[in-house]
Structures are given as structure tokens and as C-alpha cells.
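Hi R.,

Here's the chain you asked about this morning:
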Amino acid sequence: MIAMTVSPNNNREETEKQAARWTARLETGPLTAGEQSELAGWLDANPDHRWLLSRYRELCALLRTQLPVLTDAGEADALIDGVAARHRRWRWAGRALAAAASLAIVGLVWSMWPQNAGTGFGERRALALADGSRVELNAQTELVITLGRHERRVTLGRGEAFFRVAHDPARPFFVATPGGAVRVTGTVFNVRSTAAGRAEVTVLEGTVRVQSAAAAGEAQVPVPLGAGEQAMLDASGVAVRTLSPESAQNVTAWRVGQAAFESEPLADALGRFAAYHVKPVTVAADAAALRVGGRYSLDDREGFLAAVEQALPVGVVHGADGSVRVVARPPARR
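And the predicted structure, written out as C-alpha cells:
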């Protein structure tokens, strides 16, 4: 509940701030019964309160539609000036006060506008969201984040991200990928979107519900996942398996710059390094399914290739053009 006390000295600056706070609260969704009663009392306390609230709600509506464009053009200040100039009763507050009291609204509107986030080769990034959630991006990852009044939504176009979602039952948190979607209210999980249009969801704490990217119109029942469970999502459905505590933690080894493999196909293991190195490594078909294990630095692909050459019957061929290819070694002659 928002504390909205009326200043006994009719402090105009405080009244402005109260109007801005109430506007921000009204923008986030329906009021509780207690808040409705408190707002009614605040409005009845002074005729100016109702007028100020209507002006700030007008400003908020303008900001919601125009702020992104105006910010890019460097004209956000002009918008605030224009609204204030149309209402002479704001002149006693001055432009500085009007702008300052509007910050609560500006912050709210900006947080609700879709925001793009991404990383390049070998880059990791951590984001603190306005709702208290935290997102970590692996290399070569693209996200679009929208924190709305009734839901929070992230679209993972490619790559991998680790989520620690702030609990908010009134605003569920969705992660959409080409392979399917995840729904939570507050938990810790990892999502990896593959080039093949699949999504891997691993839950470390709490629970989530997942749905695959099935054909349009096909009825689906969301599949629940708990801590230690992993799901693969694609157009064919959802496949769930239970991981050991160590395996679950290995999934997020990338957060500390490492890759951990447990009998992983060589082709898939090499794919984990692709986001960290510009030049790709290809693998011959007769070597792609060979299994590899161990823990490696994602920055040291050459060290990984050297280890693979020692552990598996493969050779690493470096081309004159800088290309790298892993091929199967022929059986030794007796």
C-alpha cells in the first residue's frame, strides 16, 4: 500500500509528489480495497488533489505513447514543458518541480516499454530488471523484455539465459522461444534456444510450466517442472528428464566461463564453443556422435580440441584459410 498523507502545511511540492505516486500506482493495475479508501480520502482532502491527479494521468498517457521516440530525438524535456505550459496552475511549481515529480511516471512507463538486450561473441552480461528479477545472458544471446501491468514477458530469440525471477503472483513471468514457452511467478531456471528451433529448460529452484511450440490451434496441457528437472521443447512436444544435483549445476557452468560435458556428442560440445569464437569448427559426420566429457574453459577452444585429440580417435585439421575441422582417425594398422 502507498503511504499518502496530506501535508498539514499544504506543501505544494509534497502534493505534486503524491499525485505522481498515485498516478504510477494506478498504472500498475487495480487498487486494493485499502488503497481505494486511501485514495478517496486523499482526493477529498483538497480540491487541488483531484485536478493534479488528472493532469499527471494525462502526462502519463502522453509519455507512454511518445517517450521512446522523443528520447531518441532528445525532445523528452520539451514534452514535459508543453504539458506544464498548457496548465497555468502548474506555474507555481516551476518546470524543475514538474519534471522531478514526473520521474516516477517516466520510470514506470519506460520499464513497461519493450527493451532489447544482447551479447556478442565471447560476451556475457547481467541485467537487473525493474521488477526485481535478474537475468544473465550467455554469449550470442538476444532478448526482448517487456514488463507490463498484468504480465512480464521475455522473448529469447537466440542464445541462452539464466533467470532469477522475483515472486509476483499477480504478474506471471513468461519466456517465449522458437521451441516453446515457460511460465513462472518466481523461481530460478535456465533456458537455451538452439539453432534447430528447440528449447532446453532447466529448473534449479521452484517450479515452472512449459509448453512446446506445437502447430497453431493444437490444444496443449502445460507440463510442470520442478527443481532438478529439464525439458526439451520443440514442435513435436515436451520431453522431460530428471538431473542429478551435479548435472543441474553443470548446465549453468557458462556463467563462470566454463562448459561441462557428461557423455555429450562431440558435435554438440563444439556447438557450445561457437558463441565464444568467430571462426567455427566443423566436424565430420563419422566423428560427430563420439562422446566427450569433462569441464573446459569456453575461452580456450584450442585446449578443448587438444584434449579431444588425446581422448578420442579423431584428428584436428587446420586449413590454410584458418578453418578448423575435426575428422575421425582411421583405425591403426596391425
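Residues 114-248 form a domain with the Jelly Rolls fold (CATH 2.60.120.1440).

Let me know if you need anything else.
M.
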